[in-house]
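ok here's the first one, seq then struct tokens
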Amino acid sequence: MKRVSAVLALAIASAFSAQAAVTQTTRYLIISENNGKQMGEQVVENHDDGLTKVRYIYKDNGRGPELTEEFRLAADGTMSHYHSKGNSTFGAVVDEVFERNGDKASWKSTTEQGATDVNGPAVYVALNGSFEVDSRAIAALAKTPNASIPLLPSGTLKQVVLDEVQVAGPGGQSQQVQLVAQTGLGLSPKFLWITKGANPSLFAVVEPGTFVFAIEGWQGNGKLLAERQKAAEAKMLNDMAAKLQHPLQGLTVVKNARIFDSNKATVGAPSDVYVLRGRIAAIMPAGSPVRGAVNEIDAAGRIMLPGLFDMHGHIGRWEGALHVAAGVTTLRDMGNDNAQLQMMIDETAGGKLLAPQIVPAGFLEGESPYSSNGGFVVKTLEQSKRAIDWYAEHGYPQLKIYNSFPKEILKDTVAYAHSRGMRVSGHVPAGLRAQQALDAGYDELQHINQVMLNFLFKPGVETRSLERFYLPAEKVADLDFNSKEVKDFVGTLKKKQIVIDPTLATFAFLKQKDGDVNEPWAAVEGNMPPDVARGFHVGTMKIPDAATQARYEKSFAKMVQFVGTLHKAGVPIVAGTDDLAGFTLHSELALLVKAGLTPAEAIQIATRNGARYTRTSGDRGSIETGKLADLVLVDGDPTRDIQDLRKVSAVITRGQVIYPKEVDEALGIKPFVAGVPAVKPLEAVPSNIAGSNDGVLRHAAAFGRKHD
């Protein structure tokens, strides 16, 4: 008994000692900007011995990272020791260590191990880190003379101040905070709100339309900070759009292009395509005399595709340029903050934002601990109808229903959306199988895992949790595609012409282990900035052993195979991504080819089918006189080798020509093409001059009158 008491006394003393060692605790809250609910928190403990401990958790849509960190700082404010443990968004194990002793730096994680010599201050880039890592980088940058500091393992972090504002806090407090943009990490700037002074630190992070991360008690400033940040970002984006979009003034002829016929999935003879005010004015045989054109682009025998469709995006303002550079001229947004999306549509239409034209799908979710915090979250049929009315009035041709939607009102909600002229698609609400969603009136299903769960779901399985990923990864490997259940379901899909949006490239993460490059990124890793390429090696799922990985690989291979089975059976397929902008669509089409489609059939899905199922076939999806001049010039022949689709040399859309080479260079990406088909000014020929190409002039003149 005395020994137990002594041990207990020692434990109590140790606990009090540990508490006493904490000199300062700062708590940050993560709040949904859409509905004000807390989505996570970060608690930072600074100990008097120089050790900092961090607890970080973020959950949205039933998933998110949970991390604990500890680190120490060197005299220059950079980390001399860093250790992170926990789980990533989808459950992968996080265990990452960084050490710096003098001029020697080393790091090790479940993905990689490395070391290098380093002189002077340098900031380590954690593969999975909390916002406190950003805060310490801010402090280190403040000690440099030019707000620039080397990164480890590679790169340079730079920071500029964009805005400053006074914010109000608890107890009548106020302080000045600054908005900074950091570059050198990722494919777009990182925006952070920092305290002002000699020793700045992180004050808040705002993802407009998504969340506000702020010091507890100060989160009420989220709306103010979001609006100021949107304005600052708009200026940067407007400048980028002005630099990278080149207006086509007057009639332009694109000479000697081999046109892809998206209806027949074939490539035709070389043609000259005339563009006026953003539309196709005429198509003539290559070499026909040119009169009336003021600009000429020599396609030099390149293949010309209709603008591609990404049928599953959640677009942000900084992603648009990547989409367009990949040849994506139309994107179906499958769920977003409604105000943010409306703003982007207006900015794109006004030429202030370089982005695809957006076809919006209205997002409808129910309340639960697993809810996704975008669009409208409803409880009742009346609330659903009001949301649908808003979407219909704002030009949304489609409704997307999500995981926690109340199944009791599903059928009536779908019927009401149909009565407002909207298509209906989505995830399968919890407690239902895909077949029941079809019975309720769905026109389309999103994601291959939602399709496969139709055969795997059993009562009691929580499909809003990570089980919606782990269950297909575990079980699809053993699924018999020749079983009556599977054949009957495929037959239903065909009979009802239910569209499948499989997003195969997104679900390649199911089989990736730490250290391997995820399949969709293998072809582009060498073109990416070093930190982005490094991230491609980080696994997403918790895969404990080789047997599990082999099973997950087999399951994913069968998912790819199943999409091919659906296509052969006559089930409509569309090409969506739900992942890294632009590049993922090319990877999605490559996986469709892997599923058994020809490259030409895959491109047909990304063009004709995209237009068909966004109800935009009247002006998109094929290259025809009178339609929008959404045109993509590609080096090589993607109808023979789908990987050639990455070699986009020029994109014409909304009366502008965009060169992906310029976009790539602006974002730190190694270009996929060497040269570009430049616009060459021509001497205008008076319209009353007759000649052998009078047809071109008549087409252009009639087109101009019709669309003025």
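and now the second one, same deal
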Amino acid sequence: MIENIELPIDRFSTNRLDNLKLKNFIYGKNGTGKSSIATCIEEQYSEDYDVRVFQGYERIIAEQGQLNSITLGIKNVELQPKIEEAEALVLDLQKELGNKESGLYKDLNNQLEKVRQVKSDLDRFFINSARKLKNENSELVGITYNKNGFKSDISLRKKASDEERITAKININQAIVETGVMIEYTCESLETYIESVNQLLIVDIVEPTTLKFNSDVERNWVQSGISLHENNSTCLFCGANLSPERKEVLRDYFNDAVKTTSQDIVKLFDELERLRTAVKKMINIDESRFMLIFHSQIKDLNLQLSEIREKKLNILDVIEAKLKEKQSNIFSIVEPVDLSDNNKDFDSFFESYKALYVDNYNRSSELENIKKTARDILLNDLIYQICDLYGYSKKNEELILEKAELDCKEGYIKGKEQDLQEAREKLNSLKKQTVDESIAADTINRLLAGLGNKSFTLVKSELDNHNGSYIIHDYNGAVRDIKSLSTGEKNIVAFLWFICNLENIELAEAKPQVVVFDDPMNSNDDTTQYLIISQLQKLIRDNEDKQIFLLTHNVHFYLNTRYKYWKNKLSRKCTYHLIKNGTHTDIKLISNETQDFRTAYDALWRELNWLYNNEDAKPEYLLNPIRRILETFEKFNCIDNMCRNFSEAEKLFDVNSHSIDDLEAELNGKDKSAIIDILKKVFSDNHSLEHFKSHWN
């Protein structure tokens, strides 16, 4: 047995309905969520229980206007629209598919022609492009190149930059290169020699105090004359006596200081000559030993090398000239040279050369791959240009779109053909599934006979092959137009069929049965209401195994169906009232007879009491039941306007001017007590204060 139901929190103030029994009665006005409860039962418990839900005639009776008949039975009602839909679908699909002259088949043929034309245009482009490449660039594609090769290469097309194109043209023509061994360039820095020369240039040969020369010319003249006077005691120039002591002083002066300096100058001359020879031996790099791609870099390196040689030779020339100047004026101080040579430019050159040599050596060993890469770059670039000129991308996109459209149409038509086949099979299957409802129809006719002159009869139709199709005969046996059937008449037939079907052995499941009546009273007159109530009373009274849920908004129906409800077996019964509280519904368990109501009018007072005592209910919620209470009291007691002497109450309650859901009244800050006090005064003014007190607590 179902003991609780999970409820949607967006509709109810509580998310669970507990303490359910074998027989459950739920009363609530329209909009309080009764159908939501019925839906929850069906959704939450259909797997474990045989849940049967009655929610009116729509699921049990369907009209067949073209046959002037009705379809009876849940199974047949479910099948009837499906049969009609299947029949209409077969006709629609046949019309939609058409033939070669119309419909989808015509569209398909037109699309096939579009694809053929685009493919033909592209095919001509492939043939002409392959021929052009073979004739003008056979070194790239060979002499057997054809359209298939071009189609295959199109996917590799790629635009090359100017630099990539130039490099590829160089590489593709590259012959095998003998790299040879790397030149081990050496070049000394001249800083040390510049420093040595400058040191000699500033050497000052100091004269002894006994020797005094007026000029370097005089010194040089004396120096050259020493050897001439070696064996003479008199001066060959002036005839003066030359003492041995004088000759010894001159000899020491010129032989020691001057000789040492002269020797250093000669040594430096030798070093400078050696350096000059070494510099001149730094020959240019042979570009023939390098791949074509490196020739521009070789030219740059050779230019650097030439500049290095020129710079060093210039330095050597300058310091050599300074040495000659010192040699010629050995007794004078010569101004030093302001030069430097840190050799960084040579180091940079040599590092670049070594790196280029290694790169050249490695590339030379990969020459075949380099030439292939160059060929690919040039060919892909040519194909790109050919395709770009033709507009291949746009044309290919057009083909793709047209083929996609063709595939779409073919797939769509295939689906439609499959749909047509399935629709025909389904139509035949549906017709075979219709259920014979003769037994139920006989029972319904027997019960309807009790309605007297309001009765009508179900007669099985012979106009089609549907087992559940029935024609309506009136009380006198004449055929009635099904359009004349009222909502109440359809509802009573559906209700009686539902009751009969509960005992249908063929439909019974091996699960406990749960029966839900969701507002079974629908536009029924008094006679048919009595029939429905009596059938429900019988079902509820005799039931021992079915769990029953009866949900209704009709107070009269609610009270009469629960005949002698509070007299016995309360442990197997459960009653709830649903009360709207703003946007949500509150659920109130009715646990004894005093909490329940006896009439519809009594129900309004109980609702008013509940809203008054509910802290969550706003004051304006009280107005709707008050309006209905006053309206009912006025009609029953033939009072024209109970609020005639109270303008405030007349405006506030405004009986007969508001819909039952209208809560937009101007309260001017009134709380619940103030509203009830106004209601009390209205009843008192109409000499009905005791009536008010009897219903208000």
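notes on #2: The chain has 22 helices and 13 strands. Residues 191-342 form one domain.
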